[in-house]
Structure formats: C-alpha cells, structure tokens
Design brief:
Layout: E1 8-20, E2 43-52, E3 55-61, E4 68-74, E5 82-84, E6 91-97, E7 107-113, H1 117-149, H2 219-223, H3 250-256
Antiparallel strand pairs: 1-2, 1-7, 2-3, 3-4, 5-6, 6-7
C-alpha cells in the first residue's frame, strides 16, 4: 500500500528500547523472549511512532543524533508486522525495513524490548488507538457512500394533499344547549339615577305644591265705609262668594264685615 500524503503526527515516543537478533521460528506456536540473549542487545536507542494517513510508522532512531536506524510501516494491528511473544508482555517481534524506503524490498524480523512494563503498555495502546480511528473513518465513509447512492425520499406535499394533527390534553369549551335562554338578573324596578346624581342614592319623590292661604282683610279697610271702595281683589277662597241669606239683619251684615251691594 502506497504511503498517504499529508501531515505526519507523532502518537508515541519512548526514550529507550532494545533491539535483539532472534532465531528463526521453528514452530507455529509463536516467539519466546527467553530464546533471545536479553543481556546482549544488538542495538539500543529511541522509539517514535508516527501516523500519516492510515499508516503508522515505528521508527528506531539514535538517541543523540536522531539518525534513523530502521522503521516498520504498520498497515494493520494486530497483524504480521507487530507480534507479541508468548512468554512476556515487554517484548515484541517487529518486521522492519531499511531506512532507504520500501522500494528496496529489504526487510528483517527483530526482537523489540522495553525496560519498563509501562512503556510496552503505551506502545501497544498507541497502535490500537490509531487503527481504531482508521476503522471508524472507514465506517463513516461507507455510510456516506450508501446514503449518496440510496434514492432520496420526496417528503414534499403533493398538490391538494393535507395532513391532520391530533393534539391531546386539550379541553373543549362547553357550549349551552340549543334554544336554552341565558339567565339574566332580575330587574329591581328602579330607574337609573339622572345624570349628575351621586351613585347609589335614591331619588326622592317630588314635593306636592301647598296652597297659599287666603289673605285676611285688614281691619282698617273694613271700617272705612265712607271711603272709596278698594279695588276688587281676586278671591282666594276655595268656596267662592256667597250672598246673604234673605231675612238677615243689617247687624249681622255689619258683624260679618261684609257689605252687600
């Protein structure tokens, strides 16, 4: 698989690793670190794991100068490029290629060991996380491809098409039965007060007009017989004028104070 062009990121760095020459595998049971000469490493240096696209690169470099000793392009993990040994978690078998690139086609299997168990754990997790991300990207690409080829649903309304929506938990307003008359408050029989009257007061009934009492004649006017007769005043007597009954004496006439003409 050709290298992917793009940015190369560093996903793991370990300052000290050891490289061992390993004998050919005699059986299919796997490699054993106990068969190596662990006290005589063939090379020691620094390890870096970088990622470029979908490929991870295990790079063995000099601690001081950073010169590349060997690298192993990893396209799948777990796989044939990196294998664990059967008797220890700190050692792996790695298929490396020379520093000139893959065009030469030269590769070899070496034993890779870490002095600390935590370093070997970080090495393993870095490779797992990278290829987990690669699988997720592949699944997303497949989903997008399937969605682009699938026929699109036409969710638009056709001409004249309607929809009905049922909304629950809504109480309908109660309406009175047909023909039922609305109740009205009974009338009190009182007329509303005239404009300007104070609210809440009762209009008093109109006062009846009292008759004016008749004016009593003055005594001087009654005794002054010889003088000119006063102008006749309109009578206020409700009973009217009465004439003297026949046979009445002049004394009676004088005593009443009325003069008959």
């Amino acid at each position: 698989m050709a290298e992917d062009s793009g940015y190369e990121s560093v996903i793991c760095v370990k300052p000290e690793v050891h490289v061992y020459r390993i004998p050919p595998r005699a059986t299919n049971r796997g490699y054993r670190a106990a068969d190596w000469k662990l006290d005589e490493p063939a090379w020691s240096g620094r390890l870096r794991i970088t990622a470029k696209g979908k490929i991870a690169y295990i790079k063995l470099e000099d601690k001081i100068s950073g010169e590349l000793f060997a690298q192993a392009p990893v396209e799948q993990y777990p796989g044939s490029v990196v294998e664990s040994v059967t008797d220890s978690s700190r050692y792996f078998v790695v298929r490396i290629e020379d520093g000139n690139g893959r065009e030469q086609g030269r590769h070899a299997f070496i034993g890779l060991g870490f002095a600390d168990r935590g370093d070997s754990f970080d090495f393993n997790v870095a490779l797992q996380d990278h290829f987990k991300w690669v699988r997720q990207e592949g699944e997303l690409a497949k989903q997008e491809a399937s969605q682009s080829t699938a026929p699109k649903l036409d969710l638009g309304f056709k001409e004249g098409q309607t929809i009905k929506i049922n909304i629950g938990n809504i109480k309908k307003k109660e309406t009175p039965a047909a023909g039922a008359a609305k109740s009205r408050p009974a009338s009190s029989g009182l007329l509303p007060p005239p404009p300007g009257a104070k609210g809440g007061g009762v209009v008093p009934p109109p006062v009846a007009h009292q008759p004016v009492p008749p004016t009593q004649p003055n005594a001087a006017s009654l005794l002054d017989i010889g003088g000119p007769a006063p102008a006749a005043q309109p009578s206020l007597d409700l009973w009217g004028d009465f004439t003297t009954a026949p046979g009445s004496s002049s004394k009676e006439t004088a005593s009443t104070g009325w003069v008959q003409f």
